[in-house]
Structure formats: C-alpha cells, structure tokens
C-alpha cells in the first residue's frame, strides 16, 4: 500500500459499484412499463443510469480529490 | 465543410507548437499536456466513433433491444476504469511510456509478453480503423458518390493531417465533430417531437415490425436467453475498449490525474447522445426507411436523407465523415506508436534517436491507414467487420497483464504468456463456432462460422439456450490458465522478471519530482539529460513532460 493512502477516503470508491450493479440487473429492467414520454422502461432506465454514472463519478472524484490510490 | 476540417488539421500543427515536434511524446501524445476540454474532445472522439453512430442504430433497427447494449456498455465502463486509468497515467508519466506494451515490459520484465501485447494491440486496432471507413462509405453510398474515389480522398486528407500534426490534429477536429453530432441528435429529437404520435407511436410501429418478423432474436425487449449475453457483451466491451491502444493514447495525452478523473466523470453524459442515436434505429423503422441493398449501415444516412431538410442532412453526413476521421487518426497513431516503441526499437534498431522514432511512427501510421483502405476497397467491408469482431475478443486477452498488472505482479510472466495465448486461441475457436442465423424464415444458417459473438453455452454441455459474449469467456480461460500457471511456476521456483516500477510511481502526478528511471535504462540517456533535470529542479519549475525536458535533438 502507498504511504499516501488514507483508508477513510478509500471507502468512497465503493460507490463506483452502484451504477455497475444497477446496470447488471438485466432481468429487472427488461420490461416495457412504466413508459416515459412513450419510451419503454428498458430504454429510459438505461439512459438514466448514464446520468447516475456521471453523478457517482463526480461525487467520488470530489470526495477523493486529495487521495492518491 | 470538409475544407474547413482540412484547414483545421494543418493549423493544429502550429497550435501550441513545441520546440521539438520530433519526439514521439510530442507527435504521438500531443506533448502529454492536454487539459480538460481538449482531453474531453479527444476521448469522445476515441470512444464515440462514426462507426458507433452508424452501427448501433443499425443494430437497433435490425434486432431492437439487443442493439441497445452500447448504452450499458458506456455506463459501466467509466466507473470500472476510473481508478486503473489514473494509475496507468501515473506510471506512464513517470517512466515515459507511450504504449501499454512498454508498461508490461517494465512491470513483468518480459520482452516476449510485451511483444505479444503489442502485436495483439496492432492486429486488433487495424480492423477498427477499417470500420471507420465503412462508416464513411455508408454516407457516400447514400449521397450517390462513387465509393472508391471518395474513400481515397477521405483517406488522403486523414493521412496528410496526422502525418504533419500528430495527435493535435484529431483533438482539434473532434470539436467540430462533437458540435455536428449534437446538432444531428437535436434535429432528430425535434423530428420525433413534431411527428404526430411522438415516441409512443415510434415504439408502437417498431414493436409491430418485430412481432411480424419471423426472426426469434429481435424485439423491443430481450429474450430470457439473451440477457446473459447482453450483460457480458456490455461489460466485456467496456473492458476491451480500455485496452485498445488508441484509448490509452487519449488518456496518456492528458496533463494530469485530475484531468482524467474529471473527464471520466463527464463522459457518461455523452452516452445520452449515443442512447438518443440508438433510438433513431426505431425512428427509422417507424419512418419506413429501407437500407440500400442489404447494407444496414446505410439506415442512418438514409433516415437523414429522407426525413431531414437537405442542408441538415448535409451536416449529418459531415458529422459521420468527421466522426470517422478523428478516431481513425488516433488509432493509426496509437498503432504506429506500438510498432515504433515495441517492435522497431527493441528488435530492429535499438539505438534509434527520438527523431528517428517519430519518423518511423509517422510512416507506420501512413501504412496502417493504407492497409485499412486497401482492405475495404480490395476485399470487402464484411471482412473488416468480421476482423473487428475478432479484434474486440483478442484485445480483451491483454487484460491480465495490462490492467491487473497495474495493481499486482503476482501473476508470473510465463503464466501470463500462456494465459494470453490460451485466451487468444479459445476466443478465435469460439467465434469460429458461432453461426449466423437469419434469412426470410429467421432460421436459415446464413454463414457457418464467425457469425457473431454470442456463444451458445450448450457447447459446455449445459442444458440451456442462453448465450454469452465470447470475449468474456475467453478471458475466463485466460485468467484460469494464468492463475494455475502462476501457482505451478511458484512451486517450481521459476524466478519472476525484474520490476522496474515502484509502488509510488502509480500515484505520481504532474509536478512531482520523479526520476525517469525507465527512460534511462531503455534509452541509455546521456549525462546531460540528468543535468537538464537537475537544473529544472533547482529552478523549482513544475516538472512538465518527459519530452519537453529533453534537450533539443
């Protein structure tokens, strides 16, 4: 391990698994309803995950800015 | 439009011109000094290519839900890569690596492994370049231009500007590309919003088409047997993309760690654009667009031609054209760098100077592009698509050495080589076993082999109709062999290779005081390089780049 590591901030990296995990639950979102603006659930849910991915990465980036891992 | 792009390409040569463009880090990595915005455009040009914009909607047009895998692929990729890419940047920054194969050589002390990785990288990248030209060809077909000539001209423009400006050219032109793509997406959204029944109507018509088709693999949703393939394809493609040399080239060109992190955080937003484009496949169905002949890659250009106003369609074509040139340029640079650093220098001319290296890279990038054009013109586009399918699978096999190597060197070099070879072989064999099924009744075997990347798990003796992505399966074989091999070699006490990297190399950042140890070992850098370094340190100047600090040759 590196001398610059601070264990308390490394916990933030676990957040990165949230979008990966949600995208892995294919059987859960393989459905048509509820639709959004006429777009089936399958499609708008996965595009929503893109937004979640950006949000998660931004949070992790800001929270671990000073760390070097 | 094309003219403007050409002018920009040459202007790029003068943009932020360094004192010495004749070093490989300058020509091939833009001096390792790109900031947030330039890196964003460079990476988006790398990831979201013209072929993606043409092929993903075409796939959605053809099979529906299965084609949407590109979205979860781009969703999971960035969180997965967030940490490894930054570590890769750091260690490359400290040691002056330009390619992943150089890192592997230093980390595992194995020239053989490094050579294998370089060859795999080049072989995997070549068809990717050819595919970009397939994207342009689709546009030319729709415009009714003679494909061969137009393609040759596009190739010349591409070749000339990369030759002169190196990585700076695609970075600048990518800004134009992104603006055009955004325009196309907005235009398409307006089109759907103003077209009577909106998205509801679009999906209704698309659903009706899939229900009417005899094929059992299409539809608005995935079949239960397709879900595993969908997931493994998305995650496998994400991991593979990181390993492509051109993607790493884009990363290495960034100025510092924070630049990469910010960009990876922003990149999923671009996935929205990709998702919207994928949905255009459904719009094409509802608008009754028919591809030219059997070439479904023409679906999107056709949609633009029939539904957009003329001038707007023109911008759309330009978007695809420019969107192809940018990644093709980066890919050819990356492949050329691989050749120069991992084949030319170690095996052909160990005493090559920086200037010679750059010249070799320039000419190699030219050759690589010429090869891509010849494949399309002389053989056919289908051949390029097949090769690309194989390319994605084989590049994934470099993961144990390149990505796992960033964290641990527990895996033994001998085991890594065996694993890589096992992964490559099993991947190609599995691809060979996949037939393409289609035809009017949806059950005819169109081609016996290389028909796709969804491998039926029933081959394993499992009683299932489920399929999984070949790349991930081959990677499993690869890892298994590497782990078992390592345990075996440890038992036999076969020595590990020397590791030229140190733990804190992986967390180094711009401005750190670091010695370029690897550079010294590899280049046999002269004493006065040291002196220059000491002078800089004494002057408290921030450590710029490896290349910029070299005294002019």
What's the story with the biggest beta sheet of chain B?
2 strands, antiparallel
Mean pLDDT reading of chain B: 73
Q: What is the assembly state of the chains in this entry?
A: heterodimer
Number of helical segments with 4 or more residues of chain A: 4
Walk across the major sheet of chain B and give the strand order: 1-2
Distance between the termini of chain A: 9 Å
Percent range of helical residues of chain A: 55-70%
Class from helix and strand fractions of chain A: mainly alpha
Rounded to an integer, what's the Rg of chain B over CA atoms? 24 Å
C-alpha geometry of chain A: elongated
For the secondary structure, the number of strands of chain A is 0
Structural category of chain B is: mainly alpha
Layout of helices and strands:
The complex is a heterodimer of chains A (69) and B (553).
Chain A: H1 7-10, H2 17-24, H3 26-29, H4 41-63
Helix pairs in contact in A: 2-4
Chain B: H1 2-14, H2 24-29, H3 36-47, H4 50-63, H5 70-95, H6 100-108, H7 111-143, H8 147-165, H9 168-194, H10 198-212, H11 227-243, H12 245-252, H13 257-266, H14 268-286, H15 299-307, H16 310-348, H17 354-378, H18 381-396, H19 399-402, H20 413-433, E1 436-438, E2 444-447, E3 454-456, E4 467-469, H21 470-491, H22 517-523, H23 527-538
Antiparallel strand pairs in B: 1-2, 3-4
Structure commentary:
The complex is a heterodimer of chains A (69) and B (553). Chain A is mainly α. Chain A has four helices and no strands. Chain A has helices spanning 7-10, 17-24, 26-29, 41-63. In chain A, α2 (17-24) packs antiparallel against α4 (41-63). Chain A is elongated. Residues 1-5 of chain A have low confidence and may be disordered. Chain B has 553 residues and is an all-alpha fold. In chain B, 69% of the residues lie in helices and 2% in strands. Chain B is built from 23 helices and four strands. Chain B has a two-stranded antiparallel sheet. Chain B has a two-stranded antiparallel ribbon with strand order 3-4. In chain B, β1 and β2 form a beta hairpin. The longest helix of chain B is centred in the middle third of the chain and has 39 residues, at 310-348. Chain B starts with a helix and ends in a 15-residue tail after the last helix. The model of chain B is unreliable at 16-20 and 514-553 (pLDDT under 50). Chain A binds chain B through residues 1-4, 13, 16-17, 19-20, 23-24, 26-27, 30-32, 35, 37-40, 42-43, 46-47, 49-54, 56-58, 60-61, 65, 68-69, and chain B through 65, 68, 71-72, 74-76, 78-80, 82-83, 197-203, 220-222, 224, 227-228, 230-231, 234-235, 257-258, 261-262, 264-269, 271-272, 275-276, 279, 503-504, 506-507, 509.
């Amino acid at each position: 391990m590196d001398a610059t590591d601070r264990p308390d901030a490394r916990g933030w990296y676990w957040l990165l698994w949230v979008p990966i995990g949600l995208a892995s639950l294919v059987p859960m979102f393989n459905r048509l309803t509820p639709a959004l603006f006429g777009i089936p659930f399958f499609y708008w849910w996965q595009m929503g995950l893109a937004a979640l991915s950006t949000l998660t990465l931004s949070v992790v980036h800001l929270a671990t800015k000073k760390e070097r891992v | 439009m094309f003219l403007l792009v050409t002018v920009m390409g040459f202007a790029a040569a003068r943009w932020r011109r360094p004192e010495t463009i004749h070093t490989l880090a300058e020509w091939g990595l833009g001096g390792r000094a790109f900031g947030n915005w330039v890196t964003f455009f460079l990476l988006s040009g790398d990831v979201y290519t013209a072929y993606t914009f043409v092929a993903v909607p075409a796939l959605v047009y053809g099979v529906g839900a299965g084609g949407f895998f590109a979205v979860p692929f781009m969703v999971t990729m960035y969180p997965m890569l967030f940490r490894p890419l930054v570590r890769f940047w750091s260690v490359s920054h400290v040691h002056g690596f330009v390619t992943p194969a150089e890192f592997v050589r230093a980390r595992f002390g194995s020239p053989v492994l490094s050579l294998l990785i370089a060859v795999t990288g080049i072989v995997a990248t070549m068809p990717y370049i050819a595919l970009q030209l397939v994207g342009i060809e689709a546009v030319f077909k729709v415009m009714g231009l003679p494909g061969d000539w137009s393609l040759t001209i596009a190739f010349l423009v591409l070749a000339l500007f990369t030759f002169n400006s190196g990585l700076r050219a695609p970075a600048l032109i990518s800004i134009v590309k992104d603006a055009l793509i955004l325009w196309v997406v907005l235009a398409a959204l307006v089109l759907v919003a103003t077209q009577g029944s909106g998205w509801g109507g679009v999906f209704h018509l698309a659903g009706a088409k899939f229900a009417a088709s005899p094929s059992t693999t299409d539809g608005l949703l995935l079949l239960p047997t397709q879900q595993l393939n969908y997931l493994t394809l998305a995650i496998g493609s994400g991991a593979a993309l990181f390993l492509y040399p051109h993607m790493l080239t884009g990363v290495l060109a960034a100025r510092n760690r924070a630049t990469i992190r910010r960009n990876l955080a922003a990149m999923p937003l671009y996935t929205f654009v990709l998702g919207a484009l994928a949905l255009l496949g459904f719009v094409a169905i509802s608008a009754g667009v028919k591809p030219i002949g059997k070439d479904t890659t023409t679906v999107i250009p056709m949609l633009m031609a029939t539904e957009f106003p003329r001038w707007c369609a023109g911008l759309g074509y330009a978007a695809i054209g420019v969107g192809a040139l940018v990644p093709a340029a980066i890919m050819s640079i990356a492949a050329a760098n691989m050749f120069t650093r991992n084949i030319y220098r170690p095996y052909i001319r160990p005493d090559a100077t920086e200037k010679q290296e750059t010249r070799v890279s320039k000419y190699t990038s030219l050759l690589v592009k010429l090869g891509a054009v010849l494949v399309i013109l002389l053989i056919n586009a289908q051949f390029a698509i097949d090769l690309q399918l194989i390319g994605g699978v084989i590049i994934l096999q470099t993961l144990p050495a390149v990505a796992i190597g960033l964290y641990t060197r527990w895996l033994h070099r001998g085991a890594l080589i065996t694993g890589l070879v096992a992964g490559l072989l099993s991947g190609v064999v599995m691809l060979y076993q996949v037939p393409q099924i289609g035809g009017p009744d949806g059950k005819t075997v169109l081609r016996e082999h290389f028909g796709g990347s969804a491998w039926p798990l029933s081959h394993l003796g499992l009683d299932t109709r489920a399929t999984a992505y070949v790349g991930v399966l081959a990677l499993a074989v690869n890892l298994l062999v590497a782990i078992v091999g390592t345990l075996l070699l440890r038992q036999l006490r076969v020595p590990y290779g020397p590791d030229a990297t140190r733990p804190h190399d992986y967390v180094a950042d711009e401005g750190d005081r670091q010695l370029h140890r690897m550079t010294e070992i590899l280049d046999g850098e002269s004493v006065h390089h040291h002196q220059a370094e000491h002078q800089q340190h004494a002057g408290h100047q921030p450590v710029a780049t490896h290349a910029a600090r070299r005294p002019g040759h």
